[in-house]
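Working notes for the structural subgroup meeting. M.R. asked for a predicted model of this chain before we commit to crystallization trials. I am recording the input and output together here so anyone reviewing the notebook later can reproduce the run.

Input as submitted:
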Amino acid sequence: MNSTTGLDPVFCTVVPPHVLDKLAQHEDSALAGPARRTLERDALERSRRLLATTQGAPAVARPREAAAGRPHRTVYDAGHQQVLPGKKVRAEGSAPGKDASVNRAYTGLGATFDLYRKAYGRDSIDGSGRPLDASVHYGEKYDNAFWNGEQMVFGDGDGEIFLDFTLPVDVIGHELTHGVTQHTANLAYSGQSGALNESVSDVFGSLIKQHTLGQTAAEADWLIGAGLLAPRVHGTALRSLKAPGTAYDDPTLGKDPQPATMADFVKTTKDEGGVHINSGIPNHAFYLLAVELGGHAWERAGQIWYDVLTGGQLKAQATFADFAKLTVAAATARYHEGEEKEAVLKAWEEVGVPTS
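Returned structure, recorded in token form:
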């Protein structure tokens, strides 16, 4: 627990370790090399995050010049080095430059701020106007993007398996939502609570993309990381909320291991107990709820999930069943005994998670 803020920020990457592990074993050094270096860097960053948590990181306040209810974004260029944040290249309100990665990062930070502000009345990821910082061009062929408890960081990808990590807006939303979770339920990053942590980021990452595009639940692709995989990869994205386990099936990356129901829950000691794998179960429950209710998923379905995340009842070590019960209570509290509650009950029943 952070001694200064009472928070326990974690180091969270969008590409799971099991994907990079598989890639790192490839016989082609052009594929294996970047994956190995990424895994090494991720391990170092994770250790740094743990050290910062032990020492207590200072809270970040809204700058004096930043208006309440408006984003305060700053984008840095790491210059292919691994020293953060790098050179400041775009500040809030400045015009787009020639660097597409910088522009996409800036826009993605804004899209995330907009969803939380317009849909839920939340002022930035901490609810108090926290500045949103991001660094692009991190490392050489770095195959990941991450939230380190303080800022967003994007690699350029290796160009063979992964492209620029600023390309999918849902990746940006996913990582920044780890910051929202950090400032609210603070879900422990292991086992089922860790899978819930990842799932919440996938859910709101998808909602941020849908909100940006003005899509309904029926129109959305429900993919995380669409456009991130290079053309040679047999796959569409990193994960699918609509059909967990189908995002990719590739000779180099292997097959998407996510389960859609508790019947296929994966027991493993890797990846903090499979947090990027078993997140497919609550992901699918949210998808089922959203399509059952129809319309814009960030409205009723997203509101229920947001109410649970911020309601103060969700414990750090929560299980899927704990979360499911709270969604039923949240649906009842906000929408009473209506179709919303029935849809929540039905969604969890379909994925095999008890609600009573």
